[in-house]
Amino acid sequence: KPCVPRQRRQRQESGSFSNLFEAGTSVNAPADAFGQSPAHLAACGGEAFFLLWQLQTGANLNQQDCLGEAPIHKAAKVGSLECLALLVAGDAKIDLCNNSGQTAADLALAYGFLECAKFLTTIQHTQTMKLRGQSGYSLSDKHGLLREDPAAQNQESETNRSISRKRRRSDGV
């Protein structure tokens, strides 16, 4: 399996990243049989500091492994909000789909990381609105109060309902 379980990873962590560089691994070179780069491994391990260093040395944020997953997918699967924030700040493609057609937000939701899913969905919505040249808000009444765009409100409501359903299922309610 491409990502190592947390307990085993913690025992291996201290040596694994340094071994990559002692061996002279290139920043974007696949470091393992699954085609994962050091940035994939850092994101999968929730190692924000190492991921930041990778990003500063020119790591490709959208490089996909054998599953079609980029570092943003790996961070979403392990629930690392810190790594997700770094990747988003570095302009990683939030809407990039893996081989199963899933985005990072889809994976975060599927793995039960609701805060990560909401973060990614909110960022994606914001980016979509910027691309459309809209802010999601308009000065629509005579009092100058900000009113949210109904389409944006419907999309956010649907996301919140989806997250609520997932939360109820995971709580056993």
From TrEMBL:
Task: Answer yes or no on keyword Zinc-finger.
Answer: no
Residues annotated as coiled-coil are none
Organism superkingdom: Eukaryota
Q: Does the keyword Repeat apply?
A: yes
At which residues are the ANK repeats?
Answer: 34-66, 67-99
> So which residues are the signal peptide here?
none
Q: Which InterPro entries match?
A: Ank_Repeat/CDKN_Inhibitor, Ankyrin_rpt, Ankyrin_rpt-contain_sf
Region annotation Disordered: where it falls in the sequence:
145-173
The family database entries (SUPFAM superfamilies) matched by this protein are listed as: Ankyrin repeat (SSF48403)
Q: Which UniProt keywords apply?
A: ANK repeat, Repeat
Q: Where is the composition biased (Polar residues)?
A: 152-162
Q: Name one GO cellular component term.
A: cytosol
In this chain, composition skew of type Basic residues spans: 163-173
The entry's protein name is Ankyrin repeat domain 37
Q: What is the lineage of its organism?
A: Eukaryota, Metazoa, Chordata, Craniata, Vertebrata
Q: What's the encoding gene here?
A: ANKRD37
